[in-house]
Amino acid sequence: MTSIVTSIFQNVREYVAVPRVTALRLSPDATRLVAVVQSLDPDEKAYGTALWEIPLDPDAEPYRLTRSAKGEAGAEFTPDGELLFVSRRPDPTEKDSDSEAAALWLLPERGEPRRLATRPGGIGAVRAGGDAIVYAAQVLPGDSATEADRRKARKDAGVSAVLYDDYPIRYWDHDLGPAQPRLFTLDGTELTPDPGRALDQASFDVTPDGSTVVTTWRIPTGAGTSRSELVALAGGERRVLATSEAHDFTGPVRISPDGRQVACLRERHGTIERSFAFEVWLIDLTTGEGRPLAGDIFPMALAWGSDCLYVAADHQGRRPIFQISLDGGDPIRLTPDDGAYAELNAAPDGSLYALRGAIDAAPAPVRIAPDGTLEYLPTPTPAMELPGTLTEVSAMAEDGTEIRGWLILPEGACAENPAPFLLWIHGGPVSSWNDWSWRWNPWIMAAHGYAMLLPDPCLSSGYGQAMLDRGWGDWGPATFGDLMAITDAALKLPEIDDQRTAAMGGSFGGYMANWVAGHTDRFKAIVTHASLWNLDQFAGTTDAAMFWQREWGEPGGPISRRLSPHQTLDKITTPMLVIHGDKDYRVPIGEALSLWWDLRRSEVDSQFLYFPDEGHWILKPGNVIAWYDTVLTFLYRHVEPAFEPPAVSGLIDLGERWPTR
What we know:
The protein is an alpha+beta fold. It contains eleven helices and 37 strands. InterPro entries: 6-blade_b-propeller_TolB-like (IPR011042), AB_hydrolase_fold (IPR029058), Peptidase_S9_cat (IPR001375).
C-alpha cells in the first residue's frame, strides 16, 4: 500500500494528481471486485480512467487491468463473470482503426480485450442478464442502419445546427441532440426505434433471464414540460409499468435476483404549495402493481439482496446503508458509522461491497458483513493525513429546529491562535455535507489555516420532509436564518477568530453567497461560484426550467422577484470573487455576466474568474489549480490568515498578489 502523504493538501498540484476510485462492480459469484479509477494523464492536462482489480484479501495490492490512451469506463460483469467496459481505444485487429466513438469491449479473466460492438455515435451504459447484453447508444433520427452515412454527410457539409421541436435542449454541460439515445442488444437488434428524447438520462436494467429490459421513459406533457414513466421492453413491445401525472419514476432502476420485481425511485412533483419528495418504489413486473418501500428517507443508491433491498440514503450528515424488508416495516440501519456509502454491490453470502467516503475520508472500497462490520479493502487512492480535526456542531434556528453541520479546525487552532473562519454553503439546494468532495475539498482550505463550517440548513437532505418544507419557496430568507444561526454558534468557539470571516458557495451555495452579500456585511470576503443572480433571467435560460417553475411559478411572478439576490445589489459592500464556466447549462454564464456587470457598475471591490471551457464544475487539472490559487489569493487579500500565503502557480494573471503587511 502507498505510504501516507503529509503535504498533499498544501500543494494543489500534488492533490490533483491523486488517483480517485469512481465506480465499483462485483462479479456475480463475488470472487472479483473491479473499480473504475480516475487519474492524471501523462501530460497532466486531463484525467483518464482505467479498470483496476481490487483484491478481496485486505493484505494484497490492487492492480491495473487496462491501459490505453483513450481510457476505459462503464465496467459491468456478465452473468458468467466476464468483464464488459466501454472505451474509445483503437481496435488492434483493424488497420488504421482510430475511432473517436466509444465501443463496447470484453475483457476475459485471462487474455486480451476484444471489441464486441460499435456504433457511429458511440456506446454508453451497458447492462447484462442471461444471454443478453444491452447497451445505450446515441443515434441520429431515422434508420440506424444508415446512421454512419448521415453523420458523414453532416460533417462533410459543415453542419452542426440542431432543430428542436420541444424542451429541453441541453443538460448540465452538453447539448441534447441531434442524436437520440436508443437501446440495442449485442446482435444489433434495436429495442427502441425512434424514441425521440424518451431515453435522455435513462436508467435501465435487464432481467436475469435476459428476456426483458426495464427503463425510465420520458414523455412530453405540453407547454415545455415532461414526466418520466417506467416501462418494460420485451418481444418488441413496450409496456408501461409505472406512471403518474404527479410523479417521475427515476433511476437507479434495479431488478430483483428472481426477476419478479423492480425497484426505482419515485419523485413527487413539487408545486408552489408543496415540496417535492423522493421514495423507494417497488413494482411487480408481472402485474405492474407498485408500492412505496421505505419511510421518510432520502435514497441515493439501491442494491438487491436475496430477500431484501439495500438503500444508501442521506441521513443527518451521513449516508448510511439501510436494509429494507420487502414485507414492509421501518428501514434497519446497517452501517452505524459516519460514512457516506455509494456503489452498492450485494454478494450471495449476505455481505455488501461498496465505496465508503466521508467528510474526512476519500471514497475507498469496503466489505460490509451482514452484521454491519466494516472491512477496508486495498485501494489505488493513497492514504492522506488530514491537516486538522473534524467535529460536529449544531445551533437552534428561530423556529426551534436544530441546525447541524461539520466543523473543521486547522492544525494549531486554539484560543491563543484562533483561525480565520470560512462558511462553505453546499449546492443543491436539496443536498447535504456528508461525503468527500474531490472538487470542493475543505481540507485544502484547512491546510491553509481556515476553520471551515459545513452546515446543513433548511432544504438539506437527510433530515426528513419537514426540513425541505421549511425552505421550499423561501430559499433566501429561510436558509439565511439557518446559516447565520449556526455561524453565530461556531464563532463563539475560542479556536475561531470572529473578526476574520468569509463565506463561499457554489450553485445554490453561490445563490446563497449572493444573498448573504446583500443582507449582511459581517464577512470580509465572499466567493460565489456558478451562482444564481437574477431569477427571472435564470428561469428562462437554465436547462431545467420546468423544475424551478413548479416551485416559484412562472417567471416574473412574486416568488421569483422576492427571492432574487439581484434585488439587493445596492446593499452589497463586501468584496466578491465571481467564478463561472462558459459551458454551464444548469446555471448559464449569463448569471455571472449580469452579476459581474452589476458589481462593476456599483463599484464593489470584486474580481471575475472565467473558465471558457468548463461547465458547472471545474474539472480540468490546470483549471482546478487555478481555481484554488485564485480563491486562496482572494481570501488572503481580504481575510489574511495568520501565516504566509500559499505558493501561487502563476498560470493566470492575478495582478498584484499580496497586500503590504
